[in-house]
Every structure is written in structure tokens, then in C-alpha cells.
User: What shape does this take?
Amino acid sequence: MQKKRSKNRKGLGTSLVEFSVVLIVTVPVVLSVIDLGYIALGAQLNDTVARDAARAAAEGPPAGVNGETNKALKASDQPYQRAENVVENFYCTNVPAKIRDTLAVTESLVDVPPNTDGGAVDGTIAVETTVDIYPPFLIGGILEGHKITLAACHNIPYTYVVPKVVIPSQVKI
Assistant: This one.
């Protein structure tokens, strides 16, 4: 009987050692996969915010005039304010990531029709956003500063149409 018991104990000891070895390998791998998932989700959210901010900036009147290319917009310019409004209103509690409030907004204009003629604005606007992602497990602990910084940039054509202004003296009766 004692031999049977000691055989079971040896088997139990071997099982515990094998289980421990499997856990030592599996747990870090699983935590790293979860961290990578958070990083991918943070990158996707940043891309979405950049795209939505660029669309919002392109929906109103431009800040510049004809022929201005790659003009960096200031915080006082309307397209910048429209993009900034989208970023400020974005809030996600489920992801350990923070979209930065600083934006890089650039517009390139080919043609802005005068008010007397009206018409579509020909040009593009680019919005670049930056996100800081804080992986909660292994990757965050390994990194210096405990964060990963990613940037996304979207370039969207203007969708604004300058309304035609009719001057009363030009109206024919």
C-alpha cells in the first residue's frame, strides 16, 4: 500500500512542477497579448479621432486665401477650432490611452471662389493627432516612461461651398 501512495505523490509532484512551468511561460505571453490589444485599440482610436477632426475642419470656410500651400494653422483659425472641438469632445474610459490636446492642422488651398460668384473650395486640410497609450501589464512596465506615443494624420479635401452673395444693386427686375 505504501508503494502505491508514494507513486501517487510522485505523480502529483510531477504534475505540480509541470503546471508551474506552463504558468511561468503562459502568463507573461497572455499579459503581453492583452497589452498589444490595448496598443492596437489606442492606435485605432487615434486614427478615428484624426479622421473625424479632419472632416470637421474641412466642413467650414478655410482660413487662408488662394494659392497658399502647406500653411500651418494657429489655434485662432476656424478650421483649427473645428478640429480641436472634435478632439476635446472625444472621451473613452475603457482604454488606457489619452489623446493629446495639441494638434497639427495644415491647409493647402488651390482656389477659393469670391463671394460674388460662390462655389466649392478647392483644397485640402490635414490634421495630425497624437495619443499616449499606457499598456497596463508587461509592456508598460518594460518601457521607459510607461507609455507608447503614436501619431495619425488624415488629409481630407475641403467640402465647403462658398455661398453666392447677391448685391441688391445687381438684381435685375
